[in-house]
Predict the 3D structure of the following.
Amino acid sequence: MNYPGGFSSQPVAYVGFANLPHQVHRKSVKKGFEFTLMVAGESGLGKSTLVNSLFLTSLYADREIPAVEDTLDQTVQIEASTVEIEERGVKLRLTIVDTPGYGDALDCSECFQPIVNYVDDQFEQYLREERGFNRRHITDSRVHACFYFISSTAHGLKPIDIEFMKSIHHKVNIVPVIAKSDMLTKSEIAQMKARILQEIAENGINIYNLPEADDDEDEEFKNQTTYLKAGIPFAIVGSTDVIEVNGKKVRGRVYPWGVVEVDNPDHCDFLKLRTMLVTHMQDLQEVTHDIHYERYRAERLKHGEVEDLGPPPTTPGTKSALEAKDAELRRMQEMIRKMQLQMQQQAGDGDELPPTTNQSSAPNMPRASRNVISKQV
């Protein structure tokens, strides 16, 4: 039976805990989601094109390609672009961190250090905001995933690939990607995937591993997880061009020998990569917070550097609250000082009493004086 206000009668054994997931869902949708994705790799591997293809947006429309002479002594730059995406009422604040200049200079021995410093800076900023007074609105700019692009022309990993992943694998969830895989045949892709996984294991590099499906999950999700795991590292092709194939419009690339469709799983792993990112976005955030960030935080605590962080950042709202607390503290300290002076004066008056004073007159005297008399007796 339904009652006014949306209430309805339920069986006696029904309490209502089953509605808790719906409450969390409504709250999460209202608040929105945040996610930071880093793309790293040599120039010309299609990083910008892949990002635009994944999120159906154009983040790098005004980017200019530098000349060759400008890249000889070029240093790595960090460019973060934020875009608000809404799909079916769900809002996502997506931040893409690009690394132009990576691997372009003659000396690439330290080209990945600015990237490592950027990741640490985001951890540091989050740690500082955690120590602040306004912890309800912390902006999470930590890098939750890093798509690392591997050239399809190489026969596996280059030395710079190994050194970069070794320097950052304990800070970020690394997802290896074979760029421009349409340059390889299916057998060549399979051989390159096996070679990359072997070299990753030999060098002790930890990449992001999809979590195992629980026993109570449905078979479709279990099969999907197994299917995605078999695709790592993902061999992808990116394109924002819409072409017509057999009377159907698709995104793809046209070659003299045929067409490569981006969304065709028989042509590349683009759909696998997008499905992995969407279905495991929450897990990527949890691994970042529970493992990578906690490791960084533990190191700071281990070396006793947390106390040297300086005062926590304040906003106009928290500044007025701090000033009110300081004023209250000063007022209490002044009251204590006056009470101490009064007690000292009363104690001095008791010391000047004649020695013939007996206990009978003590009840009419102040409390401090009575204490002094009892000590003299």
